[in-house]
Amino acid sequence: MAPIAPEVAFDCQNIHSALCPAVPDLDALVNTIGRREYQQLLVISRQYRTLYGVDLATELENRIIGSVGSLLAGACMHKVLAEVMYLYRAGKSNRKYETLRKKDTALDVLCEILVGKTPEELHELKEAFTTVYKVELQEHTLSFCKDDQITSSFFINILKDKEDKPLDNLEASIADFHKLMEAGDIPGMLTFASNMTIAQFGTLVRGYNAQFKQAHVMTTLDKVIVPKHKEHKGTHAELLRFVVMQSADAGRHVALLMEESMAGLGTNEDQLSRLVVRNRGKFMEKVKAAYHVDYSRTLADRVRGDTSGLYSHLICHLINQTI
Questions:
Q1: Which of 16, 68, 156, 220 is the most buried (most CB within 10 A)?
Q2: Which has the closest alpha carbon to 162: 217, 209, 207, 200?
Q3: H or E stretch including 240?
Q4: Rounded-to-integer distance, Cα 212 and Cα 204, Å
């Protein structure tokens, strides 16, 4: 067995010591785990299992109740396995006061994780989900779409294997999408978008916005199409808004989702934690930059103002930003 790096052994020992008491030392856990980068935590988690014979993420979630425990556990997991867990638990929460929960439906979770992935990422996610839970991801996803053929078809198309190549004819694709926009055909636009890879649809949206400068996709959706087609107001319109924003500017969209998780009364800690765990690393730098531009304050400043205690400290550690 290869020797364990001294700093990794030291972190493992500190984490184990913090978890040993009847009441875990949360300050020590937050300061140790929160200050480590994603790749460092993967190494620590592997060595922790070797040294102590238990899975670190499972141990953290079992020993620490609530949002801090869930966030610590998620931070110590491989991102794919964390997403698999979030998908399986879609619509459920570890939070104590269910009556205070903000919007976080199963479809919200499915859309947040599945929309925006490359074909390779989706393939890896599907394989991991089946390996861990012994059920196909599509079957699990469709269990939340009963009696809604439009939403079912959307996710079936999203999960289909695709080839991520440039569009054969961008101009023709823009023209086809424009016809759907003019007709206000939300189901048609969902089918059109979900049959493309996220990169292909992103190219189309940016091309469309450049060509129709006075009628950008999002502006037209919000001000013209959705008000006229109230039968699709809600789930279908939200699905379309989500895929358009995610494909056009993923960093800015995640910044918006983080703001929405904290907007108004209370915080959707399930969503905020999920967004932090899934987007840690280099991509989070894009999210923080977009947040600062759109809301004229740092993301950490917003987190500090809306959350408190160790949960607030841990979020700021994980996004690597102080006020």
A1: 68
A2: 200
A3: helix 235-248
A4: 12
